[in-house]
Amino acid sequence: MTHLLLTLAPYLGILTAFTAALAVWNRLHPVSFWLAVGFPYKALAVYLTWTNVSAGCGLARKRRRWRLTLDGVPVLGPALITTTHVIPPTRKLRRVTVDTPPRLGLIRPLATGFRVAVRLDDGQTPDHYAAKLVNLSHAWRVHSVRVLDWKPGRLRLQATVRDPLTRITTPVKDDGLLRVQVGQLETAAPWVIDFTTIPHWLITGATQSGKSTLLNALITGLAAQPVALIGFDLKGGVELTPYAARLTELATERGHCVAVLNKLIAEIKLRMALCRAHHVRDIWKLPDNARPMPVVLLVDEVAELFLMADKSEKEEISATAVQLIRLAQLGRAFGLYLLVCGQRVGSDLGPGVTALRAQLSGRICHRVNDPETANMTLGDMDPAALQAARLIPADMPGVAIFAASDGRWYRARSAYIPEAQAEAAATANAHLRATWDQVTTVSVEPVTDAEFEQFEPDVS
Ligand SMILES: Nc1ncnc2c1ncn2[C@@H]1O[C@H](COP(=O)(O)OP(=O)(O)OP(=O)(O)O)[C@@H](O)[C@H]1O
Ligand SMILES: [Mg+2]
């Protein structure tokens, strides 16, 4: 026994050193490890198991084929499994039902997983695959599988081996006017919030799910841009006060918010008149030197704006809702953008909230405690998006489901920007803080109230 151990010792040592080297390589450079070691193994496993996996997921087709059998013991497995009638002992070659998998294309490696094309069988649609993505991810032992895109008769699946959102390394940066890179998508692409394509955003999530951290990232990116920032923080200003140096106005009480909204409505009337004088329908078609500054209104905890302590506040609340809705309707044309955060944005806060929510077409849903909030945020999207929102773990704050401008949804995570870092960015850019005089540079007669009410924004 001792002799055997002594003989094996060098081999065991080499094996241990080799395994340790692989583990270190994987830790230090997971991407190259995956491409060189993990991917070839995974690709082989996917090809070799595809017949069973597609059959198990109900994606294979049953076909009649000639198979050689040995007295009931099939040479090719499926013959026995799918045959119910008694097999005459003398017959060796029989027609049996077998599973034929859909044709799998070449598996291509990606930094975070792999991509593969599948030919749809007659009668199959991408929805058949969309319904089986969780099954596929378990069968392939990967973190997730998504339908990447499809063409008639063909679709592409993308598998992500490990959750790429465990650690975010993408920096937060300014990505052009009114565009901020705030984190990373599950596809490893940067997560960009772009107000020019989607002007208004709704960010929901349970407490401690990462809403304010995302707001920090946005403020960090927007602070260096020539835009006016206005904050509504009805949690007594705890969330937005650190950035006051860069904010044109910070309102922490409802009365103050109403006054700011009135100012913004007055500004929209001026911008409307300016556009009319230049015969254009929005400020982006104005000559550069005549274009007023874009304004981004950040609202943290929208529910506070709509909560009623007593009946006397009812009028103020409904006036606020009406103004916000009108601002949202006209925002894109006249350079006013809304970003609204809230734990719950449901009809229990009043009828105005539902109408406002409908105007906020950009949706970001963090971890939620109740399916209803996910529904309120992502309700009109793919049911898989709702399911993904419910599966966000509590130990991954900042992970969210993000509805992109391409009409798809993505799992994403914001880069962690602590308050101190966002505050430093706001303070460093305090010289870019626009005063109300700089926001309201338009020197024309404003449109009348009636003209304001009747203006129909261009929805194209
Ligand atoms: N992207 C992220 N990466 C890592 N940690 C994060 C991220 N986002 C948030 N966190 C952690 O979660 C904590 C809570 O985040 P945050 O304050 O943004 O939550 P919230 O949704 O605004 O909560 P509340 O509704 O109570 O205001 C942060 O202090 C931080 O530690
Ligand atoms: Mg918060």
Automatic annotation (TrEMBL):
<feature type="transmembrane region" description="Helical">
    <location>
        <begin position="39"/>
        <end position="60"/>
    </location>
</feature>
<dbReference type="Pfam" id="PF01580">
    <property type="entry name" value="FtsK_SpoIIIE"/>
</dbReference>
<feature type="binding site">
    <location>
        <begin position="205"/>
        <end position="212"/>
    </location>
    <ligand>
        <name>ATP</name>
    </ligand>
</feature>
<keyword id="KW-0067">ATP-binding</keyword>
<dbReference type="GO" id="GO:0003677">
    <property type="term" value="F:DNA binding"/>
</dbReference>
<keyword id="KW-1133">Transmembrane helix</keyword>
<dbReference type="InterPro" id="IPR002543">
    <property type="entry name" value="FtsK_dom"/>
</dbReference>
<protein>
    <submittedName>
        <fullName>Conjugal transfer protein TraS</fullName>
    </submittedName>
</protein>
<dbReference type="GO" id="GO:0005524">
    <property type="term" value="F:ATP binding"/>
</dbReference>
<keyword id="KW-0472">Membrane</keyword>
<keyword id="KW-0547">Nucleotide-binding</keyword>
<feature type="domain" description="FtsK">
    <location>
        <begin position="188"/>
        <end position="375"/>
    </location>
</feature>
<keyword id="KW-0812">Transmembrane</keyword>
<dbReference type="InterPro" id="IPR050206">
    <property type="entry name" value="FtsK/SpoIIIE/SftA"/>
</dbReference>
<dbReference type="InterPro" id="IPR027417">
    <property type="entry name" value="P-loop_NTPase"/>
</dbReference>
